[in-house]
Amino acid sequence: MDAYAESSALFRLARKGEVTQEHVRRLVTGEYHCTGTEIATYGALINRFRHEVPAGLFAHTVHRLAQARKKLLNGAVQSAGLRLEDLTDPPLDPRLERITEFLSWVGLQAGPAEAAAVIHADYTRWWAVCRRLSSAAREQSAIPEAVVEYLDLFREEPREMIGAALETIDHGLALGEDEERIVRTARKVEPFMTSYFHLVTGD
Q1: Residue range 117-160, pLDDT digits in tens
Q2: CA 11, CA 9: separation in Å to the nearest integer?
Q3: pTM for the whole thing?
Q4: Which of 10, 88, 166, 192 has the fewest CB atoms found within 10 Å of its own CB?
Q5: Which has the closest alpha carbon to 42: 56, 30, 31?
Q6: Range of the structural domain that residue 154 is part of
Q7: Nearest-angstrom CA–CA distance, 46 and 97
Q8: What Å distances lie between residue 124 and 59, 82, 127, 197, CA to CA?
């Protein structure tokens, strides 16, 4: 994940000290929409798969996302110069719309192992990028402290969560989930995340 994180469009800007307030606003807007969709996604998966292995993973994921969203709404949004109506009124960027549509599809259509593979692919990359971003952000006045604190929530890789994702993948495979489909769906995560960071940087 180190190579992916180092090549992230947003991290490259942060490392050069070129992050602007507009980049911050786009990041906060993107996080508002993605976290809201993800909470709904993994909540739906808890309802669909109630066995303790997948349900435990999805509940843990919802809890982490809810904590992050609370931090976002109780500081990061205002510090970025945004109001709630700024986040909800404008039409979504088509790239962000495609990302949230994919996340919603996972909640409604993915099997437990398939969804766990998405979590694993998503969060191993997201944590690697955020760990670098939160360090680089401390050097830049354009990135408010509340946004740095939001990024700090993702500094340390959640080993328990990653372990639970791997356990859930094994659980789903044992129940007969299609391994090729699991891999195919998980491989969609990196292009979506790359698109997300390009959206934030305005590329």
Answers
A1: 999 999 999 999 999 999 888 877 789 999 999 999 998 888 89
A2: 6
A3: 0.94
A4: 88
A5: 56
A6: 1-201
A7: 24
A8: 18, 29, 6, 15
Q: What is the CATH number of the domain that holds 91?
A: 1.20.910.10
71-124 pLDDT per residue, tens: 999 999 999 999 988 898 778 899 999 999 999 999 999 999 999 999 999 999
Domain count, the chain: 1
Alpha-carbon distance values, 149 to 30, 60, 164, 192 (Å): 16, 21, 26, 24
Residue pair 148/92 in contact (Cβ under 8 Å)? The answer is no
- In whole angstroms, give the CA distance from residue 96 to residue 103: 11
